[in-house]
Amino acid sequence: MAADGPFQPRPLDPLRWERAQSLFHDAADLAAGDRAEFLRAACGGDEALFADVMAMIEEDAAPQSVLDLGRAETAARLLDVPSAGPASKRFGPYRIVRLLGEGGSGVVHLAERDDLQNQVAIKFLRDAALSPARRERFATEQRTLARLNHPSIARLYDAGSLDDGTPWFVMEYVEGWPLVDFCDRHHCSIQDRLKLFRSVCEAAGYAHSHGVIHRDLKPSNILVKEDRSVRLLDFGIAKQIDDADRRADATRTGLRLMTPAYASPEQLRGERADARSDVYSLGVVLYQLLTGRLPFDRSTVGHTEASGDGADQSAPRPSAIARAPAVSGSTTASTTVDRAAWADLDLLCLTAMHHDPSHRYQAVDALIRDIDHFLSAERLEARPDALWYSLRSYAVRRRVPLAFAAAVLLGAALSSWALLRLAAVPAAPIAASEQQTWRTVAVLPFQNAGTDSSLDFLRLALPDEISTILSHIRSVSVRPFATTSRYGEPSVEPQQAGREMRAGTVVTGHFLRAGDALRITLEAIDVESNRSLWRDTLDVPAGNLIATQAQIGLRVRGGLADALGWPSSTASAAPTDEEAYGLFLRTAALTLDPANNGPAIRSLERSVALDPTYPPAWVALARRYYVDSRYGSGDQKAMSRYENAMARASQLDPDYVAASAGLVLSRTERGDLVQAYRQAADLVRRRPDSIDAHFVLSYVLRYAGRLDESAMECETAFLLDPRTQTSGLRSCAFVFVQRGDYGTAKKYVDLDHGSDFAKALTILMLVRDRKESQAVALGSPNMPQWNSYDLLLACAAHRPASEIDALAAAVRSSDDPETNYFAAAHLAYCGQFDLALSVLSAAIRGKYCGYPAIESDPYFASLRSTPDYAAVRDQARACAQDFVARRGVTGR
Known about the structure:
By secondary structure, the chain is of the alpha+beta class. The chain has five domains: 14-69; 90-172, Phosphorylase Kinase, domain 1; 177-375, Transferase(Phosphotransferase), domain 1 (Orthogonal Bundle); 403-572, 3-Layer(aba) Sandwich (Rossmann fold), CATH 3.40.50.10070; 754-892, no CATH class. The longest helix has 20 residues, at 190-209.
């Protein structure tokens, strides 16, 4: 269809001309081989329209064409419409510096804002008057960026329109390199590439948690700055997860709005994309990072070919490509990982890239978890649960013969012999310059190397005692034992566990009964080098637990602390009664849940009656009382018992952080926020390395309505130990739920994954996010003190009004102010406004201020329109203002 002379469009009515222009712009963005196929489908048999648009495209490609000026300028000349960008170098407070780049629909300029003296990137829409579809996509990108606030996503600063109607928006200017280019230029190792890639995944996961799918993830949309911070760009074709796809949009999604090399098979087929489509694209990016090349070459095929059987083909294993002769222009650092590690990388990458979405990682969070597992040298979640894999991974990663790895996993007799032989080997001397300077320690469960199962309780009891002893050494941060106790299997590698818990030193050991003696072997391992830093063996009478505790205390304070260069500490209070101490040790193995609480409370009450001077027993008993009060029987007297037990522990040992934090928590729930805040702030000042200290400070601040400050303390505690389950850190989820940050809230819920608490919080978030059917499918969390969740589920399921009224009548005010706040939210959601206001008022009287959260909480949306809401809101505001005026501690 070559034109004779310069292109002259045939006379068209305005609507037909607008249609032709829109198709021209859409087709011009495609690869040359795809245009005709796209236009045939889009024109729907209108041959004249097809001919006109093809003629425009051929003219655009012809030498010396008027279209050589660029589509924007061509449009301006032929149709008398403005091109992208301002007419002068200045508009508003911005001064254009230079062109950064241009694509099919937009032009991006570097600009400066003189008043703030900073550089920004300004994106202008091409041909705004010619393509309504492009204008809508441009507006969608602007709206998307406005709702996303993440350090790894380029920020939106400003937006508007020029006098001629051309829309623009101002973004963060990112001076960096595309992801793959950065890694190649800096010769990044596999581990470094994975860490950068993880940041990209976090940004994508954050977008998904806010209902946004990117749909065009590729290295050119991922810039890395010199400080190795990542920025995800170009949300121009992003979509809302819950948007209904119109047929025209679905067609364009399949044919145009993507980069075929990184697009998922379902995108290539023109099907609706979801979050798993982004997972696939991330898998392709990871493949390129690992191998230096793309898994498939789609640069020379049309969309019909790409969307056929070829879209479902499996990619070659990354390890096979990386071990081939080096790919020109790329450095993958493939020699920095061994064969077993490459097997995991293959699995990780190809799981993300599986052609069947149901077989991929179902969310970016799952991909991130397996990246973390790989970096910590632990088992991937995507790996089949095979014994052979466990043996091989253990043998290869630890560089030991497979026969020995198998022996470790076999019977106790062989294990006993091997461990006793190990105990006889003297520790190698460590030079002072090589001693561990990162004073973070994790104490793992011990192993019973013998056959006397009556001593199994010592597996957890002995390391719990060591953790308590170490907690008294200043400047040493001890990982909570509730975290380390999960590493109790014999096959657990200490180095692997230490890396996962971000500990510099791991203490482990085993014990064996031999006649009347109990032989205990202790060892400290440097996580970085996997070297033994200290080892000791002690023999104590098998029936004398107090002697055992005393000997362990001496060896840890004298031998371990000295060997690692840690400061000395005074001995903590020691148990004085054998029976009492035995009862205490046995309860250490019982989980903190209502089912175990009754027997544990009875044992611990007997323990403190026999020996009232041992602080750890009082703290253990206090925690059991709290569980009974808040999650079990609901007995209000149990909270008084909790406070008395914590106070006794604190009197016996004023430096016991767990006891001090426990008292702050109870003072908070009693409504004395100002004094609780001062005590918590002082505790953080004295023990900035303590998770308990930061958590209780966050707890006070969340009661006071200071959610941003509370979130900061939660995140600090989480950074100290991202896998801790102690100190109630899981309840930080409430802070982020009230802030509307469900992605971060889920991070804290996952600390207690699978529990009834986690189920309740998940229900809370799903209903807030208008995903009622998913919430109903989870079922009741079965927590007697949180019966308002049963009401919430009934309303979400649209149960009969009589059933809802009965459930609402069963909701009563609690002595737990936070429980009242969320019960009020559930009542409001169900339209039970009078009860909601009553229970909400009770929460505020209990000093759970809830302000300003109630002004934006979606659960209270209908309640805010009722006549009596204003009085309760003013009560909440006064509560929050009183705290701010009276807390009296500056700098926080």
